[in-house]
């Protein structure tokens, strides 16, 4: 006879889908590969571009240039593929609409170049005017 009654179901996560998505993105990410409108961009071996997600703050830092830009990260509930908006702190009109895929410690992001519309697929082939980035979690 089966012990089916002993198996316990996990209680439902009380957080919203957007809160769960935001929680999954927390940490420090090193940019390890990128392609912009058909051109693969060479990443230096020390990966100076880092993204830090703390709460809803999304900060892109470049150690070599000594720069950092902070955005507000706004997951888009129900989007397929998963999507988020990055709203510039100093100019909320400057919003980057991106799609992303998270697999373990690898984050793949596709976003438009120069304020274009949100991509619908993960491609940065020539003529798409998209930027495709791969990050690895480092912290």
Present the secondary structure layout.
Layout: H1 17-24, E1 27-36, E2 39-41, E3 49-54, E4 57-62, E5 67-76, E6 83-88, E7 95-103, E8 106-112, E9 130-137
Antiparallel strand pairs: 1-2, 1-3, 1-9, 3-4, 4-5, 5-6, 6-7, 7-8, 8-9
How would you classify the helix and strand content by structural class?
A: mainly beta
The CATH architecture can be named as Beta Barrel
Largest sheet: 8 strands, antiparallel, barrel
Q: How much helical structure, as a percent, in the residues?
A: under 10%
Distance between the termini: 47 Å
Total strands: the figure is 9
Question: What fraction of residues sit in β-strands?
Answer: over 45%
Question: Short summary of the structure?
Answer:
By secondary structure, the protein is mainly β. 6% of the residues lie in helices and 47% in strands.
Task: Give an account of the 3D structure.
By secondary structure, this protein is mainly β. It has a single domain, classed as Lipocalin. 6% of the residues lie in helices and 47% in strands. It contains one helix and nine strands; from the N terminus they run αβββββββββ. The protein has one helix spanning 17-24; strands spanning 27-36, 39-41, 49-54, 57-62, 67-76, 83-88, 95-103, 106-112, 130-137. It has an eight-stranded antiparallel β-barrel with strand order 1-3-4-5-6-7-8-9. The chain is globular and about 45 Å long. The mean pLDDT is 87.
């Amino acid at each position: 006879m089966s012990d089916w009654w002993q198996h316990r179901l996990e209680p439902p996560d009380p957080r919203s889908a957007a809160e769960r998505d935001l929680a999954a993105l927390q940490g420090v990410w090193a940019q390890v590969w990128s392609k912009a409108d058909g051109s693969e961009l060479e990443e230096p071996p020390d990966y100076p571009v880092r993204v830090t997600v703390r709460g809803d703050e999304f900060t892109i830092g470049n150690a070599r240039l000594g720069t950092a830009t902070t955005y507000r990260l706004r997951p888009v509930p129900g989007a397929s593929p998963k999507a988020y908006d990055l709203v510039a702190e100093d100019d909320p009109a400057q919003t980057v609409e991106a799609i992303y895929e998270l697999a373990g410690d690898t984050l793949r992001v596709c976003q438009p170049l120069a304020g274009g519309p949100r991509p619908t697929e993960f491609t940065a082939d020539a003529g798409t005017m998209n930027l495709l980035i791969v990050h690895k979690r480092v912290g």
